[in-house]
Amino acid sequence: MKYLYPTVLASLLALVQTQEHQVPITSHTVKDIPLLGYGTWNLAKSNASEAVTYAIETGYRHIDCAAAYGNEKKVGQGIAHGLQKAGLKRHAPSQVAEGLEKTLSDLGLEYLDLYLMHWPVTTLPSGKSELGYLETWHAMEKLLSTGKVKHIGVSNFSPEQLRHLISNSKVVPYAHQMELHPYLQQTAFVQFHQAMGVHVTAYSPLGNSNPTYGDPKKGAAPALLENEVLEVIAKEHDCTTAQVALAWGMLRGTSVIPKSQHKERIAENFGVKNCSLIYEDFKEIEKVGAKYLHRFNNPSKSWGVPLYKSLDGV
Fold it and tell me: What is the pTM of this model?
């Protein structure tokens, strides 16, 4: 048997009762996953705890985190401090299991609401990567009976991989996290998930504003937050361009998880609830997507595996 080393993404959605418009996830519906979340990918350890604490104080109830991000302990400290400051309580009492235990330990939690497989990829002892996900998923299915995981999902899967997973498993993914923003709209793929009853979460919802993707001034697409079309829409609705991009994602029924280490940006992003768009705005943003179609996160070449088969921006 091949050595399996799955990369697993933990997505925490803190369950609370005291905040308006934020409700706990149930066993029967995905509609209750908060559409606005807080991302921690590339969140520097130096102030990760403070930033997460402030995000929870601001009102965020959907915190995205992963062992691969290298900051889970700091994020966990921020969650603990944030829950305490906000006066909130959670209602809970092979390697996949070990990974979960480490994540729970780092975050200082007893359970996760949603646990995601980060990539449909396994790493061999040689360090080489190859496509593989069924064994990992079946191991994740077993975690549901432990009470330490409420729901399981996937991230960065292709349509073919998702169909294959569903047809060969007992549990349908509760959610699928993928790159989505006005430059990578993937409308047909989003609608496919909605028809299947699988919730979609958008990472990098502000596109190439993420420094991991390099200097947007040197890229194929202009900085999303400086896009003229989004700036005009923002001005018409008294919003910021970031709020327009986030509102666009949320109004499509997808969760968005923007990341920021700055309090003013964290608060600005949370203010998206006051930013409303109209049909004409969506048509204009649709044109933006057609003009600047671009996928920023694609490690296919460096990993030596074909990812995102048949999807946009590949």
Answer: 0.79
